[in-house]
Write a structure and sequence with these properties.
heterodimer, A: alpha/beta, Rossmann fold, six-stranded mixed β-sheet, four-stranded antiparallel β-sheet, 37% helix, globular, B: two-stranded antiparallel sheet, 12 helices, 2 strands
Chain lengths: 240, 269
Amino acid sequence: MITLDSVTKIFGTFTAVDNISYTIEDGDHFALLGPNGAGKTTIVRMLLDFIKPTSGKISINGVPVSDPESRKQVGYLAEQHLIPPYLSGFKYLMRHASLIGLSGKNAVLEVDRVLEMVAMKGEEKQKSVTYSKGMKQRIGIAAAILGHPKLLILDEPVAGLDPIGIREVRKILENLYDKGITVILNSHLLSEVEKTCKTAAIMHKGKILVRDSINSIVKDGETLEDVFIKYIENENEKLF
Amino acid sequence: MKNFFKIAAFTLVDQMKYKSFYVLLVISILFVLMIRGCYQGEYIVNGKQINNITLAWYVSKIVFQIIAVGMFIMVSMLSMKIFSKDEKDGSLILFLSRPVFRWQYVLGRIAGTWALCFVFMFLLHLTIFLTLWQKTGSPIPGYLTASLVCSINLLFVIVCVCFLSLFMPDFISAVFTMGILLVGFISDGGYQILNNEIAKSTVPSIANTNLALWRILYPKVFMVQAYADSIISQSRLSSMGPFHPMLNLSVFILLIMILLLLSFNKKEI
């Protein structure tokens, strides 16, 4: 279970996240939605302790995120996933395996398993500089799912991919969603979210406008995109 | 603790992947081997011919210091990009998205770089040591111990450059560190010159000049080099102030390391 308790993050004079509190239950597939600058990535970065909240508390399964133990069962895919150019996909994944405590044959078997899942078997020994954006993203997903994490944090997993790449990544993620993992998905692609997530929160200017199951948010005859635009426009009207 | 060693090992492996590392090592060893010609020949100083053993001993002491200075430049160039490169190529996310403490990452990277640079320097010193042994038939006692002593200077440079690179551009942090060393070299070098036996006997009042406090407390990189030199020469080090240069530098390393860890802990990724 992930808990955010009165979390605020201020960068200089800009409030990126404004007093947010919510919990994400185990097994939930939770989508963070919002326009650019809404504070979605800031929340993801705080969950991984890449940045500290100005105030408030965040914990994963009761462990504060400032304790690296909280990341023991967490897989993360960054918005712009990078692989050191001097590493092959295999070596990159072996490093991840090593850092989560796998070694020797166990590490190799686990890396092979995730490579199979993301359809990168046979190309894992190439240097990452030779990979396309889609291939890098698949290796990134492989790293995130290595070691059977209980929580998967995906920050814009299909950003910058072509339609074929998006479909490939979607297929991989759909397979994962059936395995009972808690997923936090930060995405602009509302159609993807509608297909794959159970609950969602719409954020705007650091605040959560609505948080509920997708079925409750989206009424008959509407799409998530319609609801999203309605909320954001309402909020903008209030401001002007 | 395991992750600290893992990250140090990754750092070693990553640095050794670059061909330029081996090219530099080979060039440096060739340079050291080429100057072995200096160990032979007839040199006359003040009308007296210097024997080969004395000559080789002096040359090896000079080369010892040249290697150390060369290493300072190499180490600062290597260290200045540790954090920025990791940030650009995704290594930082790789480590910190896993159950790794930030101190494990920082100290692992520093330890890996230090180990690599130390091995590099030690290989060069070892080459001289063996060459000299082969030429003169007897090893210089303390030569390799002096190399070990100098490794603390390398650690100081790495820690200093890493710390400064958090606040200033990479190259500037390296240049700034070189500047710190240069000031120390001028201050401590001047002190060493004024305190040698010839200067003392020529102008006895010079050596008794009161020293400014900052000169006593300043990082004693040069003095550690002088200490290493005194181990080779088996002579007494005229230390500046009450503290041994090794202690002075250890305190500085510890302080900068603490500041580095505190600053890195606050760093936003």
